[in-house]
Amino acid sequence: MTDITITGIGIVSALGIGREAFWKNCRNAMSGIKKINAFDTSSLRSNVAAYVEDFEPKQFISPRVYRRMSRISQMAVASSIEAITDSGIDLKSVNRDRIAVIMGTAYGSSSHVEEFYVSLLKDGPRGAQPFFFPETVPNALASHIAMFHGITGPNTTFCQNEISAETAVLYARTLLLTNQADVVLVGGADELTEILYSCYNVFLNRAKAKDGEPVRPRSGDGLVLGEGAGMLVMERQSFALDRGAAIYGTLKSGVVSGGTAPVGHYETEGKQMARAMTLAAEQADVEPEEIDHISVSANFSGELDRMEFHQLSSFFENRKTELMVTPLKYLIGDFGGAGILRAAAILLSLRHQVPLPAVKADSLLGESQYPLLWHTLQEGSPQTALMTSSTFGGGSTSMIFVRE
Amino acid sequence: MEVRTFKRVAITGLGTITSIGKSVSEFKQGLFSGKCGIGPVSLFDISGFSCRKAAQIKNWDVESFLEPREARRVSRCDALGLMAAGEALADSGLNLDQCDRSNIGVIMGGGAGGMLSWEEYRRAAWSGKTRPRPSLLLPMAQCSVTDLIAKQYRVTGTRSTVSTACSSSATSIGYGFDLIRSGVHNIVIAGGSEALSELTFAGFNSLRQIDPEYCRPFDKNRKGLSLGEGAAVFVLEDYEHAEQRRAKIYAEVLSYAINSDAYHMTSPHPNATGMRKVMTTALERANIGVDEVDYINTHGTGTKINDRTETLAVKEAFGQERSGQLSLSSVKSMVGHCLGASGAIEAAATVLAIINQLVPPTIHLDTPDNECDLDYTPNHSRPRDIRIALSNSFAFGGNNTCLVFAKAGKYAGL
Predict the structure, then answer these.
(1) A267, B155, B226, B270: least surrounded by Cβ within 10 Å?
(2) ipTM value for the complex
(3) Closest CA of chain B from A373, distance in Å
(4) How many angstroms separate the CA atoms of A110 and A107, rounded?
């Protein structure tokens, strides 16, 4: 079987700008969830999110270029620059028709949708600002990445709510397995705006924070939103080895399946999540006992977190009492591009041979009266990781990553 | 997924709803008779716009298609997609109760998705006079239509939603092709849906890309595009599977390609590099020579730059001599530019052209343009032996997609 490897990582997140900062905060279970200062939340159910506060596009992109981009495009381009540099690919010496850019985003630039529509409401059709309109399409960020680097290969964007990035990864894998590309920049990104936050109001976590205070949302109290961008460089193992690339890890398998859930809800029983896990393990030829790391998509919403707990308990029935999982969205918030950040955390863990912080799986039930206890281990030898994801509307994905 | 197989991909079901017909049979009749679906817009207030026409689907709304309780929770875009999917599945003759529903994928494409619903919410919130209904926000996610189709038919295979503006649903058909060709699924429901919205209407108006009357692709006096709405859904199926169940096979998908201009957010590359390469790559992947292609369903928006550039791309991809022998047409002259759904609607038109061996016309094409000097089948459909046909879709952001279709039975693909 052709192995798909990951050779580059780029990160812009509430846990740090750049993969090293992200990794440092990630391994120590630092939380990126804070009180929102970027916009007014006074009339809303919550005031916390994993907002990227210290992102400066000028550190990555010239003002002439970044001024034409929305915030989400800026973050995505910045993460692509870091990922390409990290991969060691010299774009001047490769056929850029054979490099793909595949992105996942739940909503694209909601800020530019809002700005454009409000300009229409305020000033009428003749006052609508054309500057904002091109950025309202979700594929704007992938196009900016292509334009920035001159990458002319396959280019597309997936919008599948919280598993947008995961579906992008699986399509990227398809492109590599079917030889439609040699290298794929696959990413996920979303931006958090006032309008988007207010649209989610009924689903938000009840947590309210004051300035400077730590925020401790509870599972079951509603989801906590986040934002950011992540980028992976994926290529066939043979291609990576031929060019002498350093490999973070291998994506052994990936499955996307669809449960039938009402819009705005998760699949209640999680049968499709279980099916995706089983198929991903089968395709990777991995037994549950061989999996030494589990990354879950729990996001503090009771519906998803409980479903994941029950399905994981069933899948790993032999270690039910000691099952440990990493709900990274408890640190980075939930957004359509979060899957890339979760995959990046796994790959960094495999590279550094340091386990990711984890919590007891039953913490996902939110029944404990005590604060969530993260176990941070400085030693270990992670080899095989399972990453499960589920979204509103019922879709689920599972992927298996292994150490090279 | 492990790519062990190279299965052939059949089209066994079609569903369409457009301004020229609310079913495939009506669409076909309108398509070959050169019916124009472009007219005044009544979905929202267009009084302040200088251009007030689009290809709106008339005498149809969500409530006419769904139960009132359900209609409150889905957008116009979702309902269009559900209706086309329903027609396509019925047309395919599949008995889903006898199918492994986990082996059926749903891949849809869209542009603005449930924007019209979001706008209703936003406008009400802006006015402060009424409290907007939160359920209007539910279809805001692009994947809403994909999830609803999967839920309606309880299919649990691969589920994805492509959003690359005007090429979205062409790419969704391409991804569906990949999933069958590589043996992941034996059936994929693929297509796209799009509803008119104030945002897109105002957006293209603000960019001064809309013809005040109706679009005239490839005409010397063309002034821009006309927006449209609609949906088209394909049932793609493993060719052997379709033959075994004695399904009617409309046509075969031979290949597809996608790429990027990497040039500009709203303009195609002036040298037509990306457009040319996407056609060439798609043909190479299908192992098809330019002499075997008879028809190209163009992107053909009616903007000065698109039509000129696409003409150049066809000439460069096919050579001067062969490009002059091809039949081309722009369906947008009839159904408008349906953005996220346009790729699937035009793919459906391409398949109908193959089935009926009839080239759809480009209507409103009265004055030839020296820079657009190919045979665009002006104003009247024309019989032709169509063995292989391409369907082009070129999007904002430089996203290009080309689909390759063949007459059923004849071509074995790669």
Answers:
(1) B270
(2) 0.96
(3) 34
(4) 6
